[in-house]
């Protein structure tokens, strides 16, 4: 039985579809939903480490964190408007998205992960690298939406 659903949110159209699917499913099963967004690491070419000051990197990370908090807040608002009676919580993590999704799912003993097929990255494949890694390594079922 599905009681806990983890929904990975990144602001992409596919993740919005994942959210809608999760809300519909949670309404049918009375499951609780955790919305998770992960701020990815800032990756710089090795030569730039000598030219980019750590303050600039920190400002970039802070800006990304603000953007992802906004994505999370909007997603929560949308979900609560669609189904005000559902129990929905949020979590923001920093790090490699697939690792944080898997870690959150395992530690939180989630019954299901729902996520978009592709995030904000490449549009050249049907399945993105993050969703592919989550599918391969998850300890619970994964639903991928387009």
Largest sheet, spatial ordering of strands: 3-2-1-4-5
Distance between the termini: 24 Å
Question: How many domains is the backbone divided into?
Answer: 1
Tell me the CATH architecture: 3-Layer(aba) Sandwich
Strand content: 15-25%
**DSSP, total strands:** 5
Helix proportion of residues, in percent? 40-55%
Determine the CATH superfamily. HUPs
CATH class placement: Alpha Beta
Computed over alpha carbons, the radius of gyration is 16 Å
CATH structural fold name: Rossmann fold
Secondary-structure-based class equals alpha/beta
Order of helices and strands: EHEHEHEHE
Low-confidence stretches: none
**Mean pLDDT across all amino acids:** 91
- The 3D shape can be described as globular
Largest sheet report = 5 strands, parallel
Quaternary class: single chain
Number of helices: 4
């Amino acid at each position: 039985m599905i009681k806990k659903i983890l929904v990975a949110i990144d602001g992409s159209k596919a993740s919005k579809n994942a959210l809608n699917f999760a809300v519909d499913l949670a309404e049918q099963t009375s499951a609780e939903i955790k919305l998770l967004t992960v701020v990815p690491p800032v990756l710089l070419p090795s030569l730039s480490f000598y030219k980019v000051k750590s303050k600039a990197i920190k400002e970039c990370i802070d800006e990304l964190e603000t953007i992802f908090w906004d994505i999370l807040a909007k997603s929560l608002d949308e979900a609560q408007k669609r189904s005000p009676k559902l129990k929905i919580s949020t979590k923001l993590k920093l790090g490699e998205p697939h690792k944080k999704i898997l870690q959150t799912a395992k530690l939180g003993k989630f019954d299901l992960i729902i996520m978009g097929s592709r995030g904000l990255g490449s549009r050249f494949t049907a399945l993105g690298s993050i969703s592919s890694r989550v599918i391969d390594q998850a300890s619970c079922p994964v639903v991928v939406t387009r």
